[in-house]
Every structure is written in structure tokens, then in C-alpha cells.
Records
---
Amino acid sequence: MQHPLVLPCAKGSEQVLLQEAETLGLQNARLGVAVVSGTGDLETAYRLCLWSRVASRVLWIVAEGEVANPDDIYALARAVPWDEHLSADSTFAVNFNGIGQGIRNTQFGALKVKDAIADHLRDTLHRRPDVDAKNPDISIDAHLRKGRLTLALDLAGGSLHQRGYRLAHGAAPIKEHLAATLLYRAGWPQLAVDGYNLIDPLCGSGTLLLEALLMAADIAPALTRQHFGFSHWQSHKPAVWRRLLEEARERREAGLSRLDLKIWGYDHDGATLASARDNAARLDLAHCLHLERRDLAHFTAQPGYGARGLIITNPPYGERLGTLSELVGTYDALGAVFKTFPTDWQMAIISSNPDLLKRLRLQRHKTYQAYNGGIETQIALYLRSEQHEGEGETHDPGAPVDEQARMLANRLRKNRRAAVKAAAAADTDAYRVYDQDMPEYAVAVDIYGDHVHVQEYAPPKTVAPEKARKRLLDALHLIPQILEIPAANLVLKTRERQRGSAQYQKQAARGEYLTVREGAAKLLVNLHDYLDTGLFLDHRPLRRRIHEEAQGKRFLNLFCYTASASVQAALGGAAHTTSVDLSQTYLDWAHRNFDANELDSRHRLIKADVMAWLQEGEAQYDLILCDPPTFSNTKKEQRVFDVQRDHVALIERCMNRLAPGGTLYFSNNYRGFKLDPAISARYHCEDISAATIDFDYVRRPNIHHAWKITALPACFVDTNAHWLQSGEVEQQVVD
């Protein structure tokens, strides 16, 4: 007897599932969104559970009808003869999808259906069955859409992608039914019959390899699965199921005996590759695969691969695994390697990043849409015979492909040569090597030891977004190559105009610190967790000044950030240092900097609002650094600090703390900043901005403003001095 069946699947796999289901006996098959429906008898339902590689479940419809409210839902569910499906000892669970008709959430809908089932069984079997949400004997699917409720038994008893062989997997595995969809789209079943070999150069835990092998050897994907939902179903026919299992085992043996192809899998990660071996062993198919630890950089065509075959892979595409810089190199390499294979080879790739697919620089044969969970992806197919070498093309994946990229490469090489020499002279391994030198490539590139930190700026409005994206990918591929730094050591951040404390807010939570060198100082930077790294490279000359002038002096660092200037003062022989900031996060970071340099307790870290702390204290200092932010919020005093508006009061409070003969270094990075004439009139103010621009910031002389401010000797008073509103006499140096 034909019975209604519904086969859910991943969105984008519907057509593949339709063709597969029809070969397995599904009648009157129809497509829906993420679903195929039709009719079949019990044997067909069993065969779908055992053999479908694409379906996620097999649903046996028991009732459907129009409903207008929760009472209708209850009535429809209670009318089902559940005693024909569940025994008194069975546990069950209800999975409800959809809202409407008075159902405002799925939990309420599931509760109405559950109560109806329990009430029916209580009346017919005189027992109320138990509910087991985690491991039920029978799973019931309830689907509400446009006022129509469908109730079904889940004969699979959980997603069919759980074949039973993959207990171990990699960091971002592809699910088995999506892997099967990719293989079907690539035409692998027929290619296997025709004797094509198969390679996955980024095999991870081996899902694509194993699914390909199951297809090639005619092995039922669920043959090793231990649990099915129909096992406790009252209408289950064990004899029919046993016959289908025996048939599947016979087909497995026959398929393996005639298997005449080779399958290779490579991965750079040894632990992940071990998982692939374990998964293959669980299927008793390890002898059918060649698994080897090998980096993609060492993957190229070999005579042993044969004259025809399929390269198939699920490379990382930036959603969950891999940095963008690494991925650019991966895709570049894949495209270049494919062109080294014979003309009868093919390649299939699944990716959610169209820009990365373009990095293959290959002519596509076909493209299909698919979904990896909630991620929209493309399945791209390539024929080696359709790839033609264009003028100037090369198999070198590192070679720039257009004039702009070549210009960037040349600029990076030139800058690097000069920067390496200048950095050695400055005795540092943290410096800037590129800063938007070319408007087409709006990035800043900073070296931190053996790492590179890339900040992406908004491109000019004249540059189209897609072009800007391509140029960024070009840059990310070229930068590690030319700077001779591993792509894995490149960190990319997007920098936008920051307000308030945005630049201090967390971007990630890796907690990884890297030690860099600046003269005698060891300074910790964090390239991942915050927009800024913990070290302002442009202030290197100012920190050098402080180091040289600190001997025997009392040093005060205001808005200290990670206290790198305090470290330099301490190493320069300061009698003691005091560092003030309102952020505990950065004070903790400062503490790490002190520890890294083995500095003792003479150096204090104080958590406080700078303006209030200056006002309240009286201690005097011989050397003060004040480097305030452009804007900051102070919750304690419920005010916003504005450096242009508030710098007069700030400097006055600093000067009140400055010992006779002392020096205040005042700096900020507000480009439009103007020092108030009242300060210039009252104190000796030397603009040292140009003198504090080092070799790596010559292209950005406006990166910051800096002044050396000292008190005027009493004898130097301008004859044109006038009374201030406060009643104090304004003084200024006579030129």
C-alpha cells in the first residue's frame, strides 16, 4: 500500500534528493523548499532510511488537516490511532515546527500535540506513556504551515547524516549529506563507474573521501548506523528490514570486489588526519584509501594519479575556520595546481565566499547553490579541458596577476628593504612598513616580530566595493610572501572612525600576547583581541626621549594605556614611576609589561580618572607624559572628555603637579587639534611634533601632535601681559 512520505533535506539539495529518491522507489515525487515528498510502501520507506545519502529524515505521515486554533491542533492529534504506532512502554517526543493559529512558539505547539497523544494512549492503553526528549523510542514530527498541520513518524529517528562512522571530526567538517550532494553534483557516481580516481587535498577528517568511497563501492550509507526510529514502531516489519540489510551487505561485498580506482586524501594537520583514519577503520575501508600528511604547497600533479580523475574538496572559506590571508593562498594554490593536471581531470569545490572562488582564476563549468547549515554556499565545477593559459598567466600562485598588484608588490619590497635597516638602527622589531602608500590599497601594515598586523581602511569612494575587495585579497596574499612571514601569522582588522572608547573594546578573546623589542624594553602586544595592539608605534621617538631623560627622576604617565612609556622610563633609571588609567584591562596589561622587564615595586599603577586624580593629589613629578584620547566617557563623573575643549584645564592640572625645572610632554592624535593660546602664553611650549615622527611614519606627519612644556622663569614676563578672567596674570616668553 502506498503511503505519504516526506523527505527533509538541506536547502539547495532538493533536486539531487528527488533524483535519488525516485531511484529508491519514491512515487509521485514533488519538490518543495528543503523537502521532497511523495508516496511509497513500507519497504520503500525502509530503503530510503538505509540508502538515501541526501535526505536528513524519512517521515511517515499519519495525519494532516486544516486547523484554526490550538484546540483544533489538539483534536486532530488526538484522533490519530496512536496505539497502532506506540506501545504502552514506548517513550516518545514531539518536534514541532511552525507558528500561527494561536501557536506563538514551538514549545506550546509541541505541548498541545504531546497532550493529545498522551490522552489518547491513556484512554486506549490505560497508561500514560513517558516523554523522553533526548532519546525517545518514537519521534513525532509536527509541522504547521499556513493553517495546515501535518503529523508524521520519524522513521529515521534522528538525522540520517549521522551514518555511524564519524565519531571523530575536524574543526569545521562538512556534514555527510552535504558531502553527498557535492559528489552527486560533480557526477561522481558515473565517474567512479568510468574508473576516475579521486583526490581531496584538504581532506580533514575524511568525510568527502568516505562518502565518495561508499558511492563507488555501492555501500549503503546507513549500513553501520545503530539506531532507527522505526525499531520500536508497532507497525515495524523486522523480516522486511532484515532482508534489506542482507541485500545491502551483499551489494557491499560485490561493490568492493569490483572497485577499480584510487582515492587519495591529504591534510597538513596530523591529528585531523588521524581522525580520518579512525573513521575509515570504523567502516572497515581504511585499506581502500591513501591518507598522507601533506601541505597544500606540496600538492601537485603526479603520474601516479592517472590520466583522469576528480579533485574534490571543502576548503575553509572564512566562516568558521582559517584566516582570510591563509585562505587567499589556499585558493590561489588550488587554482594553480589544477592547471598542472591532465586535461581529463575535473574539480569540484564548495565555498561560501565568491571572492575566494575567483582567486582560483579558473573558468567555471557549472555552479549550483547549496546550504551548509545556515551558510549559503556555491558548488563550483571545473573541467581541466576548459582552462586555457592566457597571456602572462603563470602557474606560480604567488605572482601578481595585474599591474596594480605588481605595483603593490614592488612598493612592499622597497619599503621592507628601507624599514629593516631603519628598524635595526632604532633597535626595534615593531614598526610600520606600509601605510596607504597607494590609494588603491587602503591598508596599513605593521611588523611585530615574526607577525604582521594589517589594518584595512575604507577605500576611496571612487573605488567600487567589489574592486576594493579584490585588491584586499591581493594584498593579503602578497604581504606575507614579500615580508617573508607565514600567512598564519597575519592578522587582519577593519578600522573605522572610532568614537569614545570604541578603540578599546574587545574584538576577540584569544588572550594571546606577543613580546616585541624596543631598545632595552620588552613590550607585550595583542594582535587579535582589540582594535589597537597595546603599543602605539608612532610614539616610539617620544618613549625614546623619556628613556633618555628619566635618570633619577620621578615620572608620571597619564592616560598610560599599557604603560610602555613607564617601562622605558623605569629602564632609563627613573627614581620611580606612577601610571594612571581608568581601564583595569590595560592596567593589568601594564603589569605584564613591568613583569616582562623584571621591574620592582617602585613603579605604581593607579586606576583612576586622570582629571579627578590630578585635582585631588599633591605629589610632584620631574617628568610627565600626558597623552589623552580625543574623546572618552567617564561614568564616575558623568562627563565626556573632549581633548580640544578640555586640554587647557588638563594641562594646568599637570603643571600644578610638575616639580620646578620639570618637563611635561603633552601629546594627542586629534588631527584638528589646536593648542590654546592661553597655554602658550602661560608656559614655554615647544612644538616637537616633527621631531617625534620616526622613519616609519614619514608619510603621516600628522599622526600626532606633541609639545614639550615647561614653566617660564619668573624673570621672563611679556610686557603685554594681561589679566585673565580668573584674576591670574598670563605670562609668556619674550622672543
---
Amino acid sequence: MGRLRAAVIPAILLLYSISLAAQPATLRGRVTDEAGLPLISANVALRGTVLGSATDAEGRYRIASLPPGRPLVLNCSMIGYGTFSVTLTLQAGEERVLDITLKESSISTGEVIVTAGKHAQSLEEVPVSVSTWDARDIQERGITSLDNALRRIPGVNITEDQINIRGSSGYSRAVGSRVLLLVDGAPVLAGDAGEVKFDAVPMFNVERIEVVKGAGSALYGSSALGGVINVITTEPRESMLRVRAHAGAWDEPRHDQWIWWGSGAQWMAGMDAMYGDARGPLAYSIAGGLRRDQGYRQLDDNTEWNLNGRVWYRFSPERNLSVSSSYSSNERGNWVFWRDLAHAMQPPADKDLTERVHSTKWHSTALYRVTHGPRFASTSRLSVYRTAFDTESDTSDFSLRPSDKVQSTAMQASAEWQGAWAMSRDQLLTFGSELSYSWVDARIYGQRDGYGVAVYAQDDVALGERLHLSAGARFDATSIDTLETDMQVNPRLGIAWKPWSETTLRASYGWGFRSPSIAERFATASTGGIITKPNPTLKAERSTSYEFGIRRTLPWATVLDAAVFWNDYSNLVEPTVDPADGRIVFRNITEARIRGYELTFESEPWGLFDCSAAYTYLFPEDMSDGSVLKYRPRHLLYAAAGLQWGAFRFGVDARYVSRMETLDKELTIVIPDADRRVATYVTDLRLSWSGAFMGLPLRCTALVDNVFNYHYTEVIANLSPVRQYRLMLETGW
């Protein structure tokens, strides 16, 4: 009996010790500022794991399932604050309390970026150029549409509705975007024309905009040829209500012959509201807005409304589900081109003045994230994006069925599974697969469909605290209608090196591609005397991108960033005029090259004053004949400054875009004065007051856009916005 007891007791003790050692640890605490106030949505993550958390309304965080017995590096960051970092070791079954205090900082060195690598990482670890805008930037400038926000981001230019990052896009009649737009990580590009529809993205509940420059196809596939834009919406962590009302008027043009509306002012007005709450494992938000704009050009009036909602549910600390949906509707006049320079505000004489365009956009996404342990997490995504538009006028044949009046209905659906495996403390492998399907039924395109299949992987490795390496690749197979399947493999390499504490060097190399849209291949249309014909033989665009950059933090809360880039393109799709019949047709330019550099500057030398500036130089060359690529400016300059004085804040924004050197000169045959163009000089002023009214916070903002009433064009025969006066009131809790 004694021998049995002597054998059993050690065995029991051994089993107990093994079970104890297997028990995970837990870390919790509170994140506050230097005044002791809680910080909401601060990012708390453990390096070398897939574990992390965001603080709630009380500034609290909790991270479970931590591996015991080994050193863990905890990082805590938040926009506007310096990064906190600490190394700790937890014992099996331990629940440790760690409170964190973050210090205010205007520099963005500790900023967390999620778009560049499809996972959260410090800006210092990102090997490519990234620009960000947060909710404060949007609020201060009274921005109500995404395109007006993007015009203020370094290296980004908007040509009418076409997004151009570092010259990647010119103007292709609003079809085929070379920039991929995401909303909370889900793609939002129309299934027919493959373009961005800005009114599909409500700006009132946007928390952050991330712009990743350069080819992103190694992770995101087609359309990420020139870059990726990710719009991140607000997740409520407390009960919140926001209401905003705004109204304004368009000023008269300088020249009397451009005034078409007679006396009085052309006005615009709108209202937005958002409510959100978080109760235990459930969080939700709902937002909506309505805008009415008479426009400064004839037939350019616009009525728009949107409704969007999102629900988050945490089944456990390891499993959570997010479901979002948004719907927008737009009715507008059908403005196209001016009559001539003497009538720049007015449409051609043969234009149907009664024609109206109705469009709708619906976007829905479901995200399910599971943390399988400290080293592995997975995310499943399903998203659907549907767009439709139709036209009608007093001269329409109303005997047609409602379905016969629909000009185009398109749907883009995609499903993605992504895994994140922390292979070690210093290595994270991100991999996944994606399926996509598009369907179009349109008068000018016919009935078309397409599909895409992709797999990807990216390995991020930290060699010590100062050197970060990134390598990845993606395989895509895409096909439209009955055309031949196009298969692509796109790699990417990147390095971020921090030789000194205040300096980060980066370099990247990558391939990109874009499959031509259904509109580019099959469109047969006539608009404003311009006739487009199909070209089903279009090939996929390809690119090779190089970038070298440096980021330096200087005294006086100043950050400098410089980058040199070189992009080689093959089979670049551009609209051209067929000399045989004068029609527009999309063709592959054999070879193109865009080189340039970019300089950005941010500073907040005193707590009451901040300023920033960014300059981008481009040399866009058509290698087939040595000419300058169409619709690419050589110089982009943006500068801003703000001054806080008590409850008042004054700001100024200035934007310069050099004159386009090359356009579609053949279009002057059908559009008089089409070649008249100048550089863009736009200055905006803003003045806001923040206080309290009847116990509620109140913000009142007065804005003057294009304060000097400068007249310019972004595309031929299309006058850009004249001076505008606006007043905005915002309240809530």
C-alpha cells in the first residue's frame, strides 16, 4: 500500500502541475490620459500573438488566453498620443491588472495601420507610403463626401469622379478605377463600370481613412494597381448620439454670361444623424442623412439620402460577429458638358433639359472573427454591392415597363477567408483565399457576368526592434463573360529599418494588375455627342512598382516624410479616339512609366497652432511615343494650417494642381473650347466655435470654399465648383 501511495501521489502532483501550466493567463486594465480621463478605442495588442483589444467607454481592456511563462511585449497606441510599450511575463492562471497612461503627441509615429498588411501594425513597420485622415480632420472641414476628403490627401488627385494616386489614373470617362476602395475592409467598386461611387460612402460615421500608395495587388488583387483606400467606420463603445445640420449657397461666377439661374442664390442644405450604443456583448449603430443641392451648373441639381447600420456581437472574448448594411438613393439632373466657353454653366442646345437620372446603391458585409489561441486567428467575410440607375424625361416613352427603363443593374459579391498565424514572437503569417462574382444587366453593356478566384499569403518578420521585413504574393484567376480566363501572380517585398530612434527608412517592390471592367470591354453609348464603342480584346493592365522613403521625427513636434517612386505599366488601358470613325474606344497602351517624388511635412510647434504641407512631383510618360500621359498633372501641392484660440478654431486649406499637359484633343471636334484649361488654385477658409448650449455640446462651423472664386476645370468642358458659403451646426453626446 505504501508503494502504491508513493507512486500515485507524485503522478497526481505531476498531472496537476501540467494542468496548471496549461492554464492561460489574463491581462486587463484601464487606459487613460495624463488627466486621468478614459481613452476610448485605444489599441492594446501583444506582439508575437494575434491577441489584442480596444478600450471601451470606461477606457478598460481585457485580453484572455495569454500564453504563460514567456516574455510578452504589450503595445498600446492611439491617434494623438504617444505609444506605450512594456515587456511582461505572466504565470499560469494569473489575471494581472495593468493600467496605462498615454501622453498626448501630435506626431503620428505610433499610429496603427490596418490596411497595408491586412492586420494591425505600427506605421514604423509599414514598408510603403501611407496617409491617414481621422474624424477630426473630416469634422473641422465640414466634409460631406469622400471625394472632397481625398482631394486633401498627399499624392491624391480627383479628376471629376476618377481617383488618381501618384498618376496611376487619368480620366477614363468614370469607368475602370485603378484604386481599390474598401469600406471596413470590404471592396466597394461597381460591378459594371468598376468605378467608385462616392455617394455610396456616408461620411458622417467615418472614424478613419487610410490611403496606401503603390501597387497593392499582392494582397488585394485587381483594381489595387495604384493603391488602396480603406474607409473605417465608427464602432460605438458607449451610448452616443450625433446630429448635424448644414446649409449654404453657391456664389455667382465672375462672368455674367455664365450665370444661368437669374437673380438670387443657388442653395444647398442637409442633415445627418447617428445613434449608437454598447450593452454588454452587443453594440450597434444606425445613421442616416439627407442632402439637397440646386447646383451651380444647369441640370446639376442633386437630391440624395442614405441610411446605414451596423451591429457587433461578441459571443465570447474569442468570437465576434459584425454585420453592416448601407443604402443610398440619388436623383439628379443629367449635366454632361458645357455648350461652349461663353456658356460654361449651360448644357448644349440640343440637350434634353427634362432628363433625370435615378441611382441606388446597396452594400452589405458580414465579418466573423475567431481567435483560436494566442497564435492563430481567422476572419470570414461575405459582402454584396448592388448598383442601379435609370433615366427618364418628359420625352420618355412611358408605355415601357419600369424594368425596361433601367439603364444598368450590377451586382458584385465576394467571400473571403483570412488566417493570421503568429509563428513566433517576431513573425506573423497572413494568408487567405477569396471568391468574387459580378453580374450586369444593362442596355449599353448587355447581360454579362464574371468571376474571380484568388489565394494569397504575406509573411511579416521583425529582426530585432529596428528591422522589419515583409514578403508576400497573390494568385488571381479572373474571367468576364465568355472571354479567356486571365491568371496573375503578383509578389511584393518590403523592408522598414529604423537605424536611429527618430528615423525610419523603407523600401518596397511589388507587382500589380487590373482586369478591364465590363464597361471598358462592352460599352456602346452616346453621351453629349461622344460615341463609345466596345473592345472585347482588352488585356489586363500590369505594373511594377518601386519605392524608397524616409520618415524623420524632428524637434518641435515635427515629422518629415520623403519618398521616391518609379512605376512601370504595361497594357495600360486609356480611352482613345479612333481616327477612322471619331468614336471613343478603350485601348491598351503598350508601355507607360510614371516616376516622381513626394514630400510631406506635419508640425505642431505650439499647442495652439498646427500646420502641414505635401508636394508631389510626377513625370508620366507614354513610352510608345514619348508623350506625356493624358490627364496627369506634374505638380500637386496641398497645405493646411490651424489656430486654436479659446473656444474658437481658425483654419485655412490651399490646394494646387498644375495644368494638364495632354488631353483628348480630338474631342474639340464635338466639344467647343474643350482645350481651354488652367492650373487649379483653390483656397478654403474655416472658423469654428465649440461650447455648450442647454447642457449639450455644440459646434458651429462657418466655411468658405474656393474663397477667391477661382474658375477652373478638372476635365474638358466642365467647370469645377465656384465659391461656396456654408454653415454647419453639430451637437450630441
---
Amino acid sequence: MSNTSKNKIHSINKNKVNNKKITSNKSINISTSKNQLLDKPLYIYLLLFISCLLVYFNSFQNELIYNWDDAGYILKNPYIDSLSWQNIKDIFSNFYFSNYQPLTLIVYAVIFKFVGTKVFLYHFVQFIFHVLNTFLVYKFISLLQNKKWISIGVALLFAVHPMHVESVAWISEMKDVLYTFFFLLALITYHYYVNKPDKKTKWYLWTIFLFILSLLSKPSAVIFSVVLLAMDLYYERLWRWRTWIEKIPFFLLSLGFGIITLAAQKSAIADIGPILKTYERALIVIHNYILYLWKFFLPLKLSVAYPYPSKIAGGALPTEFFIMPIVFIALCIIVYLLRKDKKFVWGILFFTINLLMVVGIIPIGSMVANERYTYVPYIGLSFAVLTLMDKYIKNFKINYIILIIVVVIFTISAHQRTYVWKNGEALFSDVIKKYPRYPFAYNNRGFLYWNYYAKDKYKDNPALKEKYIKKALQDFTMAINIFPDYAEPYLHRGILYYNIYKFEESLTDLNKFLQLEPNNVDGLLNRGNTLAFMGKYEESIQDFNNYIKHRDKDPQAYMWRGLSYLHLQNYNLAIKDLKKSISLDSTNYEPYYWLGVAYFNQSIYDSSLYFLDKSLQFNPNNSNTYGLKGACYINTQQYHKAIEQLSKAIELDPYNLTAYLYRSNAYKLIGDLANAQKDIEILQKNNVIK
């Protein structure tokens, strides 16, 4: 064989080998592309969206939590019933629910305009913001480092962590998802400000603007200024003089909104001074920090309310609180040993800073901890944990497997948690199951049983109404038995007793309530009503007087004081108060009706008829009003008109026996004895007359 032939054969064989290599490379590329789907942002965001949906899809129809904040924010919020300029002005110039959060109230107002109190859109908007926040978490963490699995992992943990259900499933926490949205956007624009050489002024101004929007959504955003310093530490620019100068607007905004928040929350700050000494409060702060840390890894025994610890014999906190400082010191040592890992340290710092305002340094409310407080802090903690995993678990597949297992477990747990938020009964029954000696939970559930189920939902079902009245009384009594100095259940039980005509019991409870909270004017108003129904009108007027000193714009108070004057036949003062009530609220039919009564009792029938007609404009189906009009016409000898009005009264209420009595007299006066006799027979049958 010639050399030429050999070379040809060699060339052919070489090409075959090369072709094999090419084919092999193609297969590798194809395979790689299949394994790199998550490199495409669209697929990542789709994964994050689906993760959020798997947790929260069934929560869109959850009811309003009538016995905790939702009633105040949605059902009884005067600022959201319209989007008028006056309402918007009032939103920005007033505190509401011990908070200053005008942007959140505007979001409520927009939703209310479209659906009123129907829950779906509130939950859906809240869910969408949570999804957007999850996207922003992924974006933010991606800017901090270049390992995609860490960015995805942090975002997934944020999306599905069971501790975040409270922030997403509870309509009253719209402020959480809203402030976080602007908070994260501000962190991203700040990153661009620091790291992009051009358009720095633009990014700086965007950061300030987004920070303001976050502050207007929820006061918790005041901590953003300190978070920026943590960002500067991460970017290794903390000790530059310019770094501190550029923070001046942020710290001024934080200071201003901090002062506003303290003023707004003055009534909500719990006075636990007599209960907790300084060192005990410090122990609780440390306990809360570790509690939030522990719940990140093991979110078990979750509760919407975590009570303050009961002191054991000798007046000391439970032993676990004295162990916590040792645990805390151990954790600090671990962080110190890992101090060279910048990402880990920054994650822990982000977690700690965002907990500072809610860890218990300033005690707010009656609970030692709340799950919603972890919504932002857990971003940093997730970042720290995944950074350590990436550093010490070298096997990429193991990291992915661990992450997937945790995300699946958290997704299932969080989804189950959404069922607890189905309604107020499920929510506080869950608290009672976990903390059976927590009086706050019994009081809130009892309030739901009475104020919503018995008084509203089942008001036309006597059996169910009676059932929930009994359940409410049981819960209020249980709360009192557990903690006899807990004031609120006395108020609620006293109001319940008043409504079921047990006035002596009502007075006892309201007296006890005012003994415990002498400055609470709600007790004065309700005790005044009870005293009036007991015929103690002079005493009731004293309570109304004291109430009006504090709340002189309450139309109901003037009406009820007017009724007490009316029963004392002090018509001048009665009429004055009833007209004052109308001047404050011209749409309430009751003061018009009672003015009609006042003038009727003075035989001023024209004025009586005028106010009775005004009452019917706002309540055209009130039998008593037609009945009193009929009585006026009898006294002015307009008998046919009287019969017409009294017949209308009987049509609306066949059991209005007073109307039958007046109509029988009217029939007699016109000589219609047959119809008069029919009315008399009905009165005799009901033992009104013999």
C-alpha cells in the first residue's frame, strides 16, 4: 500500500474520531441545556410563583378575623369608605389603630371601592405582593453574590416559610407585605447607587423615595437606615466620611417617623414595669431573639399569640429564661469564630438589625412575640445558613437535596397553617389548644361568639344565637377565672349581660372593669346605659357626663343622655341633647324618634309629627314610629289618619299591642264598633285588657 493511500486512510479515521467527538459534544450541550433550565430567569420566577401559590391558594376565601383587627381595618374603618380628597387628607393627617400607615389605608380604600368587605380581592392583592416580594428577595440576594442556588434558596425559604403565613394570610397585615415591597426595592436601588459608576444621584433619590413609601406603609421601616450601614459594611465602605454624610436624610426620616410612631402607639405600649424588672426584660429580649432563631429551623407549635411567661413560685421567670443568655453567648462565639466569612456575618447582622424594633426592648401589646415580625429578618438568616452550607458542604447535589426537602416540608406546614386563618374561631381555638391558660385567647374568642355570631350572623336563629351567647359567657368567664385582674373580659361580659337584660350582672362587671381601668371611657358609656335601663337615671347621667368630657363628638352619648333626661321628664335638656346628637349624625333615625316622643309627652303634636316623619326617612319600617304618629293623630282628632298609621304599624309588627289599643280607640271614635271589637279581642287574647 502506498504512503498516499495510508495517509488517506489515516485522514478518514481521524475524521471519524473527530466526528465522534463532535457528536459527543452536541449531546453534552443538549444535556447541559436541559439541566440549566433554572439559569433562565423566567423559569426561576415561575418556580417561585408556584411555590407561593402552593402555600396560599386556599386562603383567598378565608373570612375576616372579626375579633382581631380586621373589623377595625375593614368593617369599621371610616377612612376607606370612599376615595374622596377629604378622606385621603384625613388618612395622611390622622393616626388610626395606634399606627401611622397612610399608604396601607389607601390600598384598603382602593380595594374597598371595588368589592366592599368581600374578602377575595384583599387576600389576592396581599398574595400578589408576597409573590413580588419573593421575586425581589431573589433579585436582591443575586446582587449580593453570584451563586444562583443560594439566591433561589433564600427566595424559596422566604416564599414558603410557615412563620410568614401570618403576614400573608391575615388581611390586617397588608402593611407587612406592602412595606417589605418598598423596603426591598430601596435596598436594590441602593446597591445600584453604590456599585454603578453612572447615574448615582438618580439611584440615591430613588432609594430615598422608596424608603419614604415603605415608612408610609408600616413604621417598622424606620430600621432601614441601620440596614444601610450593614450594606456599607458588606461593600467595605462603612468607614468613609461620605458614607455617613449620605445617610443623614435617611436617619432624619427614621427619627421623624419614629417620633410619629411612638406618639401613635402610646396607647398600645404595654405598661409591664410593675411585672418585669430591668434584668427580666433583658432576659425576655434574649429569649425572643433565640425563639425567632429556633422557629426558623423548627417552626413548630406556631401561634398567632405568644403570651408573656407566667412567673413561678418566688416571683421568678421560668428557668429557661435564665439559660437563654448562655445559649446566646454560645451563638455569639460561633459568629465570632466565623467572622471571616463576610456573607455569613452580614446575614446574621441583617437578621439581628431587623429584629431590634420588635424583639421586646419596647414592649408593645400583650404578647411577648409575633410571627409576622420575622417576615423581613428571615431573609438575612436564610442567606447566612445557605452560605454556610455552600462553604462546608462541598457536594452541590447534597445542598440541593437538603434545600428541596426543607422547602417541601415548609410548604406543607405553611399550607396547613393557612387553614388556621380560616376565621377567628379557628384562629383563637388554635391558640387555646397550644396555650390553654392564656386569658387573651378566651376573651377574643368569646368576643367573636357574642359580637359576631350571636349578635349578627345568627341573630335570626334563636337556637344558634342562644348557643353562642352561652359559649361567649363561658369564654369570658374562663378568661376572668385565669386572670381576675384582666379588665377587658369584664367589659365584654358586662355588655353581653346588658343585651340579654341581666342588668345587675352587667353593672357588677362594668363596675369591676372601671375599677381596673378607671380611665377607660368605654366602661362609662356602657355603665351609663345599664344604669338607665335599671331606672337609675341620675347615676346614668353622671356617667354620660364624664364620658362626654372625653368624647364630645359621639352622637350616641348625647342621645342616651337625652333619653335619661326624657325619663326624668326634663324635656328641655332631653331635647337639647337629642338635637345635639342629630347635629353630629343626621342619618340616625333614633334621636328623631325620641324627639317625637319628647314633644308628644308635652302635647306639642305638630313638632312630634315633624320629627317622627324625619325618623321614617332613615328607617321607614319602624312599627313604633307609625304607632306614635297614630297616637298624635288621635290627639289632634284626625282619626282616619290615625287608623291608617296604626294599621301600618300593625302590618310591620303584628305583635305591636300598643298599636292595637290605640286603633281600637280610633275605631270607637269614628263609630266603627265592629273593627274596634276585633282589636279588643286581640288585646284580650294577649291579656292586655280584660
